[in-house]
Design goal:
With 373 residues, this protein is of the alpha/beta class. It has 2 domains: 188 residues, Rossmann fold (3-Layer(aba) Sandwich); 139 residues, N-(1-d-carboxylethyl)-l-norvaline Dehydrogenase, domain 2. 41% of the residues lie in helices and 15% in strands. The chain contains 17 helices and 12 strands. Strands 5-2-1-6-7-8-11-12 form an 8-stranded mixed beta sheet, sandwiched between helices. It has a 4-stranded mixed beta sheet with strand order 4-3-10-9. Strand 1, helix 1 and strand 2 form a beta-alpha-beta unit. It is globular and about 55 Å long.
Length: 373
């Protein structure tokens, strides 16, 4: 007799959330869909689901994935769900935690898709502050599994699905439980070492904010009419990226985490090799044709600075690791956008790590409790 399929709740009805909800539904899973505002849900309710356009997907036929419940009520959304897939910009992770906290039950799994830097730690810390006592496993994916875009109301297109996405849980010894539960639907998910490693291997922190900030004039002059990676990254820009990458690696070293360099990541992800980061970027055919954002008011800055760069700098401050290049990028991006991106960012306080020793941080992510120093 076949094992009962888990019920999913997808929290977030943007590009990624609608893609995930439609794909899961067409795979035969029962899916609830939550969104803070009703606007994106009305077409789904009227249609009874989300139409999936799926070039390159071979596990489902194109069609309408039926959505069991589409709601703005978090209690209704998470009711009866076994796995909660959070698919919202990282700045909304704390909000989702607040909305879900009163309604979570023992045995549920929450996965942030992706966690950026410190997502699972922040989510757990919010639940703890709100007094949530449910035995819930919280995990984060290192990156989002889909390349997708919503094309019309209640219609989404998936362009590709990543073949290997690390996932880690708090505590890390229970990561396999999360991955095994997810692999019923997503064989692409593989165990990550721990949430510190998935957070620090967030290579978007290297490639996104710095490149956009250093190309601000070109972006505003051309409205993004240039190839972001292949034309926006010159040898001098790549040199700055290497400094950001080096500081990321030093934070990992301080925590005892082996961080994958951006150059090695390019080789593993795209088989792109080079003597330095610039050569590896130029050797990557996957970057061909990817155009720049049309404005600096883009998630590459508005999301990646406060939720990727800021937590790394905050960790560095606590651990005694100097991060001058990261700090400079934060200040430049704040000036470009007219926003205090550091004040809006994740800090060790928001991650629940303030005052912990390195050993206590390691115990927290591995065992679930920091213990004594």
């Amino acid at each position: 007799m076949s094992e009962k399929k888990p019920k999913f709740c997808v929290l977030g009805a943007g590009h990624g959330g609608t893609a995930m909800a439609a794909h899961l539904a067409l795979k035969g899973f029962e899916v609830n869909l939550y969104n803070r505002s009703e606007e994106r849900l009305i077409p789904v309710i009227e249609r009874g689901g989300i139409e999936l356009l799926s070039p390159g997907l071979d596990d489902v036929e194109k069609g309408v994935g039926p959505i069991a419940v589409a709601t703005t009520d978090p209690a209704e959304a998470v009711d009866g769900a076994d796995i909660l897939m959070v698919v919202v910009p990282a700045f909304a992770h704390a909000f989702i935690a607040e909305q879900c906290a009163p309604h979570l039950r023992d045995g549920q799994i929450v996965v942030l898709n992706p966690g950026r830097t410190g997502g699972a730690l922040e989510f757990r810390h919010v639940l703890d502050e709100l007094g949530c006592t449910a035995d819930v496993l919280i995990g984060e994916a290192q990156t989002f599994i889909y390349a997708s875009r919503a094309t019309q109301p209640a219609q989404v297109r998936i362009f590709s699905v990543k073949s290997n996405v690390p996932v880690a849980a708090i505590p890390s010894y229970r990561t396999n439980e999360v991955v095994q539960a997810l692999r019923v639907a997503y064989p692409q998910f593989v165990p990550g070492d721990n949430v510190l490693k998935t957070s620090l291997n967030n290579v978007g922190v290297v490639f996104h904010p710095t490149v956009l900030a250093m190309n601000a004039a070109r972006v505003e002059d051309t409205h993004g009419n240039f190839q972001y990676y292949l034309e926006g990254i010159t040898p001098s820009v790549a040199g700055v990226l290497e400094k950001v990458d080096h500081e990321r690696g030093q934070i990992g070293d301080a925590l005892g985490i082996g961080v994958l360099s951006a150059r090695n990541w390019l080789f593993i992800a795209y088989s792109a090799a080079g003597e330095d980061l610039y050569e590896a970027i130029m050797a990557n055919p996957g970057y061909k044709g990817i155009m720049a954002p049309s404005t600096v008011m883009h998630r590459y800055i508005l999301e990646h600075v406060p939720l990727s760069l800021v937590p790394m700098v905050s960790l560095g401050e606590m651990l005694g690791v100097e991060t001058p290049t990261m700090r400079a990028v934060i200040e430049l991006c704040s000036a470009l956008t007219g926003r205090d991106l550091r004040a809006a960012g994740r800090t060790v306080e928001r991650l629940g790590l303030q005052g912990l020793t390195i050993r206590q941080i390691q115990r927290l992510v591995m065992e679930g409790e920091p213990g004594s120093p």
